[in-house]
Each structure stands twice: as C-alpha cells, then as structure tokens.
Automatic annotation (TrEMBL):
Domain of life: Bacteria
Keywords, comma-separated and alphabetical: Hydrolase
Gene3D superfamilies in the cross-refs: Nucleoside Triphosphate Pyrophosphohydrolase (3.90.79.10)
Location of the Nudix hydrolase domain: 3-133
InterPro entries, sorted: Nudix_hydrolase, NUDIX_hydrolase-like_dom_sf, NUDIX_hydrolase_dom
UniProt GO MF annotations: hydrolase activity
Similarity-based family: Belongs to the Nudix hydrolase family.
Protein name (record): NUDIX hydrolase
Pfam families in the cross-refs: NUDIX
C-alpha cells in the first residue's frame, strides 16, 4: 500500500521592528495561485521547520528574521489548491527593507488595516488568528 502524506510547509508572519505599529510583510505571488500571501514555502528534506522559515524569508523578502514564537499548525486538506499541505506558522521579527525574490513578484510592508481581504491559501485565517493573538492574547482554537 502506498502512503500519501501532506507536504510540510512553513509560513512566517514577519513584524517590522523598525516601523511604527509593527506592520507585517506580505508578498504578491509570481506563480499560481496568484495573489497576496504570507512569506513561506516548502520544507526541504533534512531541514527543520525553523531553518526553512529563515531560508524562505531570505529567498522571498531578502531579510534575515528572528523567529519569536510558534503561532500554530494549519493542516486543512484544502488549505492549498495544489496539494494537501501542513504548515507550521511562526511569528518573526525583522528590520530593513524587504526585496522581492524567488517566487515573490512584490514584497510590501503593510499596516494591519491595509491587509487585503482575499489572501491566498488559508492565509486570511492565519492573519486573523495572528491579530486575535497580537491584540487580545487569544491563541487560535484547535480545529476551527
């Protein structure tokens, strides 16, 4: 019997420490699915989620990040239209000016009221969970 497992990914909510109100970075994707997303990507074989997060941040936004804490793990089978993925989501901090790279068409620092409503994947839910945690110290509810 052949096993099919979700592909491991990592996503990073990057707070900008050197800007008022600690805005976050979103990227505009260059490839399908098109749209705005949190920086992140697939974890390579033999790589930890933490290392993948730092690598993906450098590749997509050109910044070194400091991982601060784990926001949660998101694993809904339909979270990525391309295949079933399981994402470890971190909150991180950075300073500097993001520069789009790898599969990011653009990288923008956005205040929380500027965040587009229709984010790719399940990133709208992730950002909503982040905002509840940031402002109300409410952790995401498991399975919701």
């Amino acid at each position: 019997m052949a096993y099919r497992n979700p592909a491991p990914t990592v996503d990073i909510i990057v707070e900008m420490l050197d800007r008022p109100d600690r805005p976050i970075i979103l990227i505009e994707r260059m490839f399908e699915p098109l749209g705005w997303a949190i920086p992140g990507g697939f974890i390579d074989y033999g790589e930890s989620a933490e290392t993948a997060g730092k690598r993906e941040a450098m590749e997509e936004i050109g910044l070194e990040i400091e991982l601060v804490e784990l926001l949660g793990v998101y694993s809904a089978p339909d979270r990525d239209p391309r295949q079933h993925t399981l994402s470890t989501v971190y909150i991180a901090t950075a300073t500097g000016t993001p520069k789009a790279g790898d599969d990011a068409k653009q990288a923008h620092v956005l205040n929380l009221w500027e965040i587009p409503k229709n984010l790719c994947f399940d990133h709208g839910k992730i950002v909503a969970d982040y905002l509840k945690y940031r402002y109300y110290q409410q952790r995401p509810i498991l399975g919701k």
